[in-house]
Amino acid sequence: MDFLEVKNEGYVPTYTRTDFTDALHDAFGFRTDYQIVATSIMKKIFKETKK
Hints:
This protein is of the alpha+beta class. It is 41% helix and 20% strand. The chain has one domain (3-49). The protein has two helices and three strands, in the order E-E-H-E-H.
């Protein structure tokens, strides 16, 4: 999944939403297909998925 970083704001998803990306969201319990994902939320997602 690709994102565009907006300094001091967060991340904007640049990927195309598909059944596969929806399945990933469901499997891992987070959503990234909103207009902008706050930097703090993205850091939390990174931390949780590196376990």
